[in-house]
Amino acid sequence: MWGSKKDRPKDGPEEEAPALQDNNSHDNHSTRSSARMNRERREPDERTSLLRENRRPPASDGYLDPDDPAVSPYNLWSVRFLRYFTVLFLMISFIWWVLLLVSIFVSPPGMHSRGSGFFDFAYTSLTIGNLLVAVIFFASPAKAMRVTTAIIAVLLLIDMVVILSIPRIRLEEGWVGIASVVWAFFIAVWCVLTDRVVAWGKREEEQRLTGRPETRRTVKEWLAVLAATILTVIFILITILMTSTLGIRARDSTLKMQGERIYVDGDKYQVHLACVGNASYTGGKKDPTILLEAGETPLEYDFEHWAYSAYQNGTISRFCYWDRPGYAWSDNAPSPHSAGMSADALSEALAKYGEEGPYILVSAGIGSIHSRIFSSRHIKVVTGLMLIDPMHEDLLHRISNPTRGFLLWGWGIISPLGIERLGGALFKGRTREDRVYGRNAYQSGKYIKAQLQENLVADSLSKNEVASARNIQDSSVPIVVVSSGIKCRTDKEWERKQEDLTKLTDNLVSWDVVNKAPHQVWQTYDGRTMMEKRLKALVKAASKVQVKSEVED
């Protein structure tokens, strides 16, 4: 029993209050469920919450923690689009890079560059570097990266203008080089814009999902930014060196030359050919023209000076000289390129130049291989051979050494940086003459490419060609051999092979070993004197053979 009314439990309306509250709560819950269901029916967009409301912590204000992995610029389709295309560009650049690498050794149809091809490869390598940095550090945009990549883009724009505006460089680089530098410039601009868009997307997503843009960076992000900046600064230095080397090439292209460039091999490339003196006649017969073939260095450096001195002294009345592909003013030939191909190029150039012979071939070092092949293919117009410390076909394996080939390839790859050429021009006073055909000609990408081509086929194609030439060489042609005393003393195999070369024909005029002369025999006074003396004797012997053959005919 209850003692009083006030002690009794409340009933009536007061007892129904909890039930009403329950009903209200049920209604509110139903309303929220309906709203949630409506939201779920709508297509999600970039403003759609990534976490369901009922998964939020009770005290949350509806925003994610800034360190939550869901806070990412990849949520935006525009950012994802840029990343997909960046990866696509990287794949395209890599395929192009492989093609350029292959073309150094074997020129694909339509991809031959009349220059070295190393600049094309360098620009594409730089492009791949920029794209790799963009892909690896895609989610860590930074102003430093944008600034450094923009500097690269400006330098590449300068390179593009130089290549397009300087006729000689434009011809040497061809469409392959132009396409490579244009692509490199485009990718540099693309990387700048991509980094800028990612930075915008990152800020947008942080503000949407955390309530404010994040100003902090984790240690990992700072390291990523630092690594990317260091790499792009290195790319800037590389591009500066390449731009400077292009400037050197533009300067060297203004150097005047004697003679002219002549298209050969189906107009694929040009070779330089020049002649000094006028045709003379003795007894109604045309005197032979001396045809010079360089050794391991461009002929104009000092070999041509000896020939010009012999011309002034009256020892010879006329001489012609040319630059093999890749040397001095001549373009590079397509790869592979053998000694026989060079001999054919010389033959075509002489024909287009209007030269008909007869010729006395004067060659040095490796050039003797080319002259011997030329002689065997032009028996009727070659009346004499003078070999100056010549290379024997059995020693071509020294030139084709794989280690030497790898070093040449590596030297060619870094040749666009022009470190030695720039240093020589800035600190040693090297001139255009030094770089085009003089003491520094070996630093040219064209020269390195020619040496690499020679290395690749010396002990195969070239050796087979010169072996065949020996079998069909006219045995009546007079021959002179002048050898280096220093080389013969220090290399007995070289000496034995020099003696063997005196037996190329049955008409040996003389074999002389100049005691203190190096491989470039003409660099000493005794060497030049002996060469001029033996050349005069060879001219007389060739005249006798020519008269004898005419009588027999």
Task: Describe it.
This protein has 553 residues and is of the alpha/beta class. It has 2 domains: 73-252; 260-400 and 441-552, Alpha/Beta hydrolase fold, catalytic domain (Rossmann fold, 3-Layer(aba) Sandwich). It is 57% helix and 10% strand. The protein has 17 helices and 10 strands. The chain has helices spanning 13-41, 77-105, 118-136, 143-165, 167-210, 219-252, 303-312, 339-353, 367-377, 396-399, 402-414, 419-427, 432-436, 445-472, 485-490, 492-501, 525-552; strands at 260-264, 269-276, 281-282, 285-286, 289-293, 319-322, 359-364, 382-388, 478-484, 507-514. The chain has an 8-stranded mixed sheet, with helices on both faces. Strands 3-4 form a two-stranded antiparallel ribbon. Strand 5, helix 7 and strand 6 (319-322) form a beta-alpha-beta unit. Helix 4 runs antiparallel to helix 5. The longest helix has 44 residues, at 167-210. The radius of gyration is 38 Å and the shape is elongated. 39% of the residues are buried. Residues 1-23 and 52-60 have low confidence and may be disordered.
